[in-house]
Amino acid sequence: MLTEFMSYLHSTVTPGEAGNQLWALIYVLIIFTGVSIAVIAMNWLERKALAHFQVRLGPMRVGPHGLLQPIADALKLMLKEDIIPSEADKMVFWFAPMIGLLASFTVYIVIPFGPSQAVSDMNIGILFMLGVSSLGVLGIVTAGWASNSHYPLIGALRSSAQMVSYEVAMGLAVVSAIVMTSMNTAGTGTLSMIGIVQAQQQQGIWFLFKFFPLGFVAFIIFAIAMVAETNRAPFDLAEAESELTAGFHTEYSGLRWSLFMLAEYAAMIAVSSIAVTLWVGGWMRPFPNLLSAPIWEFIFSLFPGLTFAALAAIAFIGTVRMPSHSFFKIQRIGLAGFALVLAFIALVLFAIAIAGRSSDTSIAGRFRVGIDYVYWFVLKVAIFMYLFIWYRATWPRYRFDQLMKIGWKVMLPISLGVLILTAFWGVLVK
Amino acid sequence: MNPALANPAINVSAAPVGTPYFFYGLAAAAIISGLLVITRRNAVHSALALIVTLLSVAGLYLMLYAPFVAGVQIIVYAGGIMVLFLFVIMLVNIERASKERQFNRMWPVGLVASCALLALFMSAFTKGKSLFPDRPLQLPEGINTQQIAAALYGEAGKMGAYTFAFEIASLLLLVAILGAVIMTKKRI
Description:
Chain A is mainly alpha-helical and 430 residues long. Chain A contains 17 helices and no strands. Chain B has 2 domains: 16-139, Up-down Bundle (Four Helix Bundle (Hemerythrin (Met), subunit A)), CATH 1.20.120; 141-188, no CATH class.
């Protein structure tokens, strides 16, 4: 086991390709933990950001600025009574949340956080992602049907119609990005997620800007379709609370309901990762070819540390600005401790960046490179996640006929046209 | 030579991913859920069992070094067609459907047909040794997608082996789509 552990340390491919099951398991555990933490953080950020958009304070009670609110919520949901309606189809009702959760967590196998920072590099990577994430709709449909109640059934039918229609435009937008990987050179096209990012690296351009404006339009189509695919506002008709109470999960409570939420947020992160991989250069830092001098390499490798230092500074300012009443004493100590932890992480990251600045092959150098890859990938995904909140705060919900009209009559023709034009441009214009 | 083969990252001689246990597990899942499809009274349960069958078959494709086919199987059947199936079944009155006879009078014919198919498979399995290569196929799964593309669309200016059949199939689909539109629309 130890040799299996050590042998992978100098490898430059993913554990799946190296055939190293131990490291594959380690990666799976790291990703699972990371995604769960990200979902918790996203939950807090969404409530806070939405509140500030609407000139409210949001959660303030549990912990400083409500930082511990997601943990309190999770505890509450776990302790809540788990109700299964008497007329419900018990087995399907029990199984439905699992389907969504399985689908949205399985896709993380192929998400490339770096050239070797993925569980596996499948030859069919992007196809696998689209296929498995399209299974998520089954969880929603079965949940709505198994509840044996009107609102969930209507919500499930709406949701399945919506997801099936937007999948088409989404798939065509993805294909036009895949076509860009193989322009003018036979045999370089690839479906592998890692291969797509490497193609952008070789061509020296994010596919967002390639064949301007074609890549951009395809990206916009995908960005709209991915919001619809995850059933988020303004496309959240499946859970339109003013019409359907809570849509497909009306009859769910407690832990099962929280599984739906977990699946939804994990799916959001997954589709954002697809967008980042296909159009925004995946793990690459900005201008990897233009600013390739060692000094730029070093400056960009300081960014992870700077981010954590900024977070620590914000937490520290929060500690100082906290009211000096004795009621806030524990909260103040807790926030100060949190600031210290963040500052410590920042210090470690700085130390790695400085220790590994000269080489890519030493242990510190490999750590520095790996942290850089994961940092830029996660930063890009985080921007997309913030956009999800922004959309929700900004736009009113679509009506169902408007939704179908946009999906079939606007997005589908545009994405087909973009695909055809991309292919023509790639073949004709040398 | 296909350029993907020259890629040093793809290890052609790597140990096969599939072990017999995977095969038996997937085959058992496919057969059991296939039986559930025809024996469940509730149509939604049947549809869900059918999804499990399709996913197990996708797993079998993966074991045959055909990841592209497996991915398409998941996208088209499990993700697309079965959702539409469920969509339609949920709108059907389940109470009335569950009171109807589950097997109609055609079952002896079906039994004979399936026995004939089983006999065919058995004879192929026992006697058809010459039909199959006698050693494990060296199929690099790393270029499965490229191989399928070459077979369907041709390579280096040559027409692929199945280009014509493939295009005919797409024409057939187009006809079916037009037919569906004409049948549902009263006025075009």
